[in-house]
Design a protein that fits this description.
CATH topology: ABC transporter involved in vitamin B12 uptake, BtuC
Strand content: under 5%
Helix content: over 70%
Number of helices: 13
Keywords: Cell membrane, Membrane, Transmembrane, Transmembrane helix, Transport
Number of strands: 0
Protein name: Iron chelate uptake ABC transporter family permease subunit
GO molecular function: transmembrane transporter activity
Organism: Pseudolactococcus chungangensis
Structural class: mainly alpha
Largest sheet: none
CATH class: Mainly Alpha
Number of domains: 1
Distance between the termini: 41 Å
Mean pLDDT: 86
Pfam family, one: FecCD
């Protein structure tokens, strides 16, 4: 109980710190004397940014946890299974053929591409040796790079490279009131995942075990893929790509707390949100008053953790 309270207090400290760190000074002990400009900054920028960091960090981490259970592999995530790259291709498609489409339409198209891309990767993974846990994510990265190259080619052909790069880079500095609310759809998706957590945990033991326990394996797999694709598309369209988060957070949580998904879901969401908040604040502080993109900070720290996890796993085969 004490650890839970300490964890909640730590997250609250991170949230408050995120709200009050920035170029415009918002003195926390002088709330009653703030100018209209300071109130506008709080309500239109700082608060939306912090909320989007919490939701996106939790959403990406939980999506990674679900995918790892579906694939029975600790090193897959939307970033290493072609999901994000397929969604990226969908966004390029919208930029070319539906340039004036609203945000919801962009998300819908990105979801369709992400769902199909993930299903294609699952089909490819059937022909890979399942016992080699490192090979599958490496093939997934190559598959994603192929999809990403196709997206880049079409973006280049239509002179959209700069638009695509700015749109898809994980950057919360442009989050404002009115352009991040789509992230709230991740909350009901989290509730659905929690309701099906038992089934996803059983599926991690394999198809035969799931069928013996009365679970419709293929249907549940499609449900899981749909949730992952939709959640990934929402994050990508709203705030851009956040690398490695969906791998390292679920792995570190499972190393410490075990593999029971229903127990790990809140912890994965908590640590994902906390980690992203910390990375974003580092990006704001390190070269203030300028900012470093949070995707760069997460990419550097996440890649180090990812390499460490791969080296640990490779020792099992040496």
């Amino acid at each position: 109980m004490t650890k839970k309270i300490a964890g909640i207090i730590f997250l609250v400290i991170l949230i408050v710190s995120s709200i009050f760190i920035g170029l415009v000074d918002l003195p926390i002990f002088e709330l009653g004397t703030w100018s209209s400009r300071q109130n506008l900054v709080l309500l239109s920028s700082r608060l939306p940014r912090t909320l989007s960091l919490v939701i996106a960090g939790a959403s990406v981490s939980v999506s990674g946890l679900v995918m790892q259970n579906l694939m029975q592999n600790k090193f897959v995530s939307p970033n290493t299974a072609g999901t994000m790259d397929s969604a990226k291709l969908g966004i390029v498609f919208v930029m070319i053929f539906l340039p004036n489409a609203p945000l919801l339409m962009r998300t819908t198209v990105a979801f369709g591409f992400a769902f199909l891309g993930t299903c294609l990767f699952l089909l490819i993974s059937r022909y890979l040796p399942s016992k080699n846990t490192i090979l599958i994510p490496l093939v997934g990265i190559m598959f994603g790079n192929i999809i990403g190259s196709i997206a880049t080619f079409f973006a280049y052909q239509h002179q959209l490279l700069q638009n695509m790069a700015s749109w898809l880079q994980g950057n919360f500095s442009v989050v404002m009131r009115g352009n991040y609310e789509l992230l709230y759809l991740s909350i009901p998706l989290f509730i659905i995942i929690y309701l099906f957590a038992y089934q996803f945990t059983i599926m991690a033991a394999g198809q035969e075990m799931a069928i013996n326990l009365g679970i419709s394996y293929q249907k549940m797999r499609l449900v899981g893929i749909g949730i992952i694709a939709l959640s990934s598309s929402i994050v990508l369209v709203s705030v851009g790509n956040i690398p490695f988060l969906g791998i390292i957070v679920p792995n570190l949580v499972s190393l410490k707390f075990g593999d029971q998904m229903k127990n790990n879901l809140p912890l994965t969401a908590y640590f994902g949100a906390s980690f992203l908040l910390i990375c974003d604040m580092i990006g704001r502080i390190i070269i203030a008053p300028y900012e470093i993109s949070v995707s760069l900070i997460v990419g550097v720290l996440g890649s180090i953790c990812f390499i460490g996890l791969l080296l640990k796993e490779s020792r099992r085969y040496s």
